């Protein structure tokens, strides 16, 4: 048998064989081929035919949007904020406040690098005479940002709470899993600021009180130390800073946004970009003690941003 080549499509060439046809005594026609050759062809072709008949595997179902789930409420009528809330990646690297696995429904309120940060039009409104100080602090961040030396990141830099405990007759508790050491905040609702706490002053997380605005928990915090920054890019503040956080639950998501008032350094109140956290079954774990790094080996912001 001599092979012939036949084009099946533009990119497929197959080898075929032309076999003689003979007439049987019964008058019917058949190929004058060796039986073994025909069987071999059948063996080769059969799997291909079987593959063509096999149904395609069903596509994996798309993840359900957690925001579309019902929003549970407590007996007092307020939204149930209890639970663990994944934010995937924290506001900035030195604070190390990421918690939970990445989720397609998590919306970060900040940026992934310094270049994106400077490209964002929502910049803190520093007074013009303070811009040079902000830029100098940004250039020397690894020497001047206390978060690099295992100090707490402070509010609002630590971002949304990683877990919330909401019990009758008790302050609402915010829990955080942080690089400088896990921490918590107490948010009593419907009361005044604690005079003892404010008397101490210089608080990393400030003194917080809460109130309900419909289904939104509004948290007002004052009494800060000036050691902390608002963000990694030289964003300092004064001891007159007041932070107002708004937290609401939508289904199995937690919406968070903070507004900063600081008349000493800002020309107006500044509302930071919003965050959306997603409810998770993961639990907060104890982080190992923070150990200071040799700051002489750290990369400066100038080198990272080239601006």
Keywords:
single chain; two-stranded antiparallel ribbon; 16% helix; alpha+beta; 6 helices; 307 residues; 14 strands
Explain what the structure shows:
This protein is an alpha+beta fold and 307 residues long. The chain has two domains: 3-53, no CATH class; 67-305, no CATH class. It is 16% helix and 25% strand. The chain contains six helices and 14 strands. The protein has helices at residues 35-53, 114-119, 131-139, 141-144, 195-200, 301-305, and strands at 3-9, 12-17, 21-23, 29-31, 83-86, 163-165, 172-176, 183-187, 207-213, 216-222, 242-250, 253-261, 270-271, 275-280. Strands 5, 6, 7, 8, 9, 10, 11, 12, 13 and 14 form a ten-stranded antiparallel beta sheet that branches. Strands 1-2 form a two-stranded antiparallel sheet. A hairpin with a 5-residue loop joins strand 3 (21-23) and strand 4 (29-31). The radius of gyration is 33 Å and the shape is globular. Residues 2-19 and 28-51 have low confidence and may be disordered.
């Amino acid at each position: 048998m001599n092979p012939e080549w036949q084009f099946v499509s533009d990119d497929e060439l197959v080898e075929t064989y032309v076999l003689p046809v003979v007439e049987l005594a019964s008058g019917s026609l058949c190929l004058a081929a060796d039986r073994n050759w025909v069987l071999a062809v059948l063996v080769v072709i059969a799997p291909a035919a079987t593959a063509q008949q096999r149904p395609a595997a069903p596509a994996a179902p798309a993840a359900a949007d957690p925001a579309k789930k019902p929003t549970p409420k407590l007996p007092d009528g307020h939204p149930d904020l209890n639970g663990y809330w994944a934010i995937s990646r924290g506001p900035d690297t030195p604070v190390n406040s990421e918690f939970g696995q990445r989720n397609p429904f998590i919306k970060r309120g900040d940026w992934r690098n310094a270049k994106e940060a400077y490209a964002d039009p929502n910049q803190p409104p520093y007074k013009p005479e303070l811009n040079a100080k902000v830029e100098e602090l940004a250039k020397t961040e690894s020497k001047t940002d206390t978060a690099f030396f295992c100090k707490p990141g402070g509010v609002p830099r630590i971002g949304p709470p990683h877990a919330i405990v909401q019990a009758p007759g008790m302050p609402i508790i915010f829990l955080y899993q942080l690089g400088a050491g896990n921490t918590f905040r107490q948010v009593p609702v419907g009361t005044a600021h604690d005079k003892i706490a404010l008397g101490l002053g210089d608080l990393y997380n400030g003194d917080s009180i809460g109130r309900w605005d419909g289904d939104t928990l509004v948290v007002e915090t004052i009494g800060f130390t000036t050691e902390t920054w608002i963000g990694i890019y030289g964003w300092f503040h004064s001891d007159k800073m007041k932070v107002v956080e708004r937290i609401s639950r939508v289904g199995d998501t937690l919406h968070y946004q903070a507004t900063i008032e600081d008349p000493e350094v800002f020309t107006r109140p500044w509302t930071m970009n919003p965050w959306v956290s997603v409810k998770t079954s993961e639990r907060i774990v104890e982080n190992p003690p923070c150990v200071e790094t040799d700051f002489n080996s750290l990369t400066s912001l100038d080198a990272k941003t080239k601006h």
